[in-house]
Each structure stands twice: as C-alpha cells, then as structure tokens.
Amino acid sequence: MKKSYFIAICWIAVLINACDATVSNGEVTFETEDLNYSINTEVNFNKKLFVNGKVASFFFGGTISTYGSSAIAQPSGAVQTLRLKDLSLGGYRIPLKWNNGNIISSAVGGPTNIFGDAWVTKLKEIEAEAVIVIGGQTNNNDITPEDAVNMVRYFKNRGLSVKNWIVGNEPSMNGLTIQEYCQMFNQVSDAMKEVDPSIKIGGPAWAYYDLNALRSFIKLSGSRADIIDYHHYGMGEFFLSDEEALLQTLNYENEINEIRSMIRTELPGAENRIEIQVGEYHWSHRRDNGYPGWNGDDRFFKPVTTVWAASVAGLIAKAGGRGCQYADLNGPLGLTFENSDEATHFGRSVNDPMPIYYGLFMFTGGNLFRHFGKEFVVASTTIENMEIYASTSKNIVLINKDSSNAKKIHLKMRGLRNRRRVDIWQTERQNPFNPPTNKGTQIIRNGYFSYTIPPYTVTSLIIK
Q1: Residue 27 contacts by C-beta under 8 Å, 6 or more apart in sequence?
Q2: Looking at the predicted structure, is the pLDDT value of residue 459 above 80?
Q3: N or C, where is the chain less crowded by C-beta within 10 Å?
Q4: Which has the closest alpha carbon to 56: 318, 326, 257, 387?
C-alpha cells in the first residue's frame, strides 16, 4: 500500500471517530455531532425528577372491562392474553363484586360465569397487578362491609394476594353525594383493614375531575384512604378538535399536582402517603360525541390517539401518578379490537391492537425493547408541540403532537460517558395498527444527537 493512500485512510478514520459518522457502502455519513447547530432539547441523566421523593407503585396501567368473548379469562382468550402480556402494563383495574359465595364481574352486562380467581390468576400470568374495583349488589356503590370483607378473604384463602382496592365507581352516577359516599367508604375500608391491614384502599373513583369533591373525600376519608382515584376522558359533553385535545393533555399533569397540593393543605404529610390515580382515561368516554366520523368518532382508530395516549401516560407518570387506560376490550375504547365489524372495516382482526395500544407500548417497550422504568430524569425541549420524557434506564420518549410538521431535535445528553449507541423505535402514522418499527442504530458521542421526528408519531430512543 502506498504511504499517501494509507495516510488518507487514517485521516478518514479519525474524522469518522471525531464526528460520529457511520459508513455504509463505502460512503461516510455524518449523523450526530454537528456543533454548529443550536441545542433545542436536553436530558440530564445525572438529575432525577422527584415528586415529593415518592415513586408510584406502577406508572402505566389499564383496565379489564370483563367484556368480550375473547377476554383473557374466557375460554377463547389465548390471543388476548398474549396481546396484554406483550404490552407489559404494570397493572389493571377490574370491576368485581361478591355474589353468594363467589366473585363475579360487577360491570353492567358483564359475565356471570367467570369468577374472581380466574381474572386475578390471568393477570398474574401476564405479570400484572390487579386493582379490584368493588361493586355492589344492584349498582356500583351499594356496597356493604360484609361483602367487601368476603372479597378480601376470598382471595387470601386462594393464595392470590390482592393489595390494591377501589371502593365503588363513579358514585354520582348512582345518585350519591360525596358525603354519602364517604360514609359508606369509611365503614367498608375499616372492615377490610381489620381482615388485612396491609392492603391499600382508595376512592372515590369520581366520574370526572372535580377538585371540590376530591377535597371532601380527603377531609372525610383521607385518614383512611391510601389512593385517591378519579376519571378523566379527553372528550366531555362535546367533541374537541384534534389540536385542542392534544393541547389539553397538559391538564392531566396539572390536575395531579393540584390534587397533591390540596392534600398537603387539608391533611399535611399525607401527600407522601396517598397515591393519586387517574382510574380511567381514554380519548372519549363514548363513541357518539358528535364527531362526524365513520360510525361516530372514528379517531379512536387514527394515529392522533396513539400520540394523545402517549402524552397522557407520560404526563401522569411524570407527575408521580398512576394512570389506568380504559379498557382492554370495549368497542372503540379497547386496547384491541373487540368487534369483528370494526376490525374488518379497518382491515384487521378481533384482538388486533388499536392505536392507543402503541401509545402505551412506547413507554413499556412491550415485547420489542426495554421498559421505560420508574424513575424520571430532568428533560426539556423548546420545540413547539413536542414532548420529551427520559428515565434513569437511559430511555427517552419523544412525542410530536404536530399534525403536519416534522421536528428536528438537536439533543444534548448530560451524564453519558464515552461513545454510546442508540436504537430508534417509532410508531407509524400511516399504519397506526402496526407495531413500532426499528429505524436503526446510531452513534452518540460526547452526549450529542440529532434526529428528525415525523408529525403525529412517538419515538423511543433506547440508549445502549
């Protein structure tokens, strides 16, 4: 080899190493460390994000509606069980009630031939925690202490440890005032704790965010409660535009912070003890909300719901809350398709994942990549309509909430030593029913990384 040719090759190698370039088919492509750009996004892996020094017992959860002939505890539930196992959520709320010596679904129209131990056993099989929502004999809230105690004993006697319980569900829908609910809650929770003092009990599972109702709950029942639970759906009485719905996801973080501040005022010290749980959330609580789509609001089946769900899940978790998507199966409100007519319309099959599934997947990693973890680190961006979340596990989630514009991130990461590789996973806007795709591996050197995030997508960076 001629000396001049050898020197040229060495200089190319030096340049590649200095500039974080990759070589493909003999061509050099500089990717990550262009110091001429202005940093617009930062992550500090050395600085944890604490919320009262407290970490929720799990961040990303769902709900077992008990509906659907292909549900996990049904005889034909093998595919759905695999779908939920692949999603890897930490826990699921499930509505159950005492029924003459056994436990069955308390959901209106729920099955009566599948018992409580079957549901909880299946959740343990997919390594998820059960959060039992106790229902009454004739509605969600006519609960007696005796029935609640029987439910605690039922699971203890079968060796199925259930540690999280919610008393009743949406009491105002059954005509109860918050004062009437709290009277019932106090009697029920006292009786349950006598049987098992280690369990966590929560309420009031209010149907919507109402700080005054939640304040009354803390005043009247806060000394007993371990969890404060309320529901929040994206759409209310009327539908919102895509842009407004995505803008309002910030309310989830604000609400949790507001609740924690309220607890600190009303019951000083309890803000570090009482968990805050958004017990139900989804794009909308009903399909017929006035939106002019296919058979009602068809945005459940579009990529905007993937982006919306990732934003909501991230904001709840970042605020130190627990979030439970509703539900595994319930028409358009499902994680997966329940009805064959809907599945066929979109070219899918029953039990195939819907867009919201992959919004949560980008945090859990599902069966494709590493879980986000439970400890946040400080992360920020100055890019409009972008959100960023990062964890001590060295995961970063980037959400582009813009419907039409790609966003170029110029990212500085503090706390990374030496040269690192990053796997890039991204949802598909054009195919929101498909799993995220691996966009390849790139190099991070000296903590700099640059990448373009397409509109209405969620991107997970998994740093090696």
Answers
A1: none
A2: yes
A3: N
A4: 318
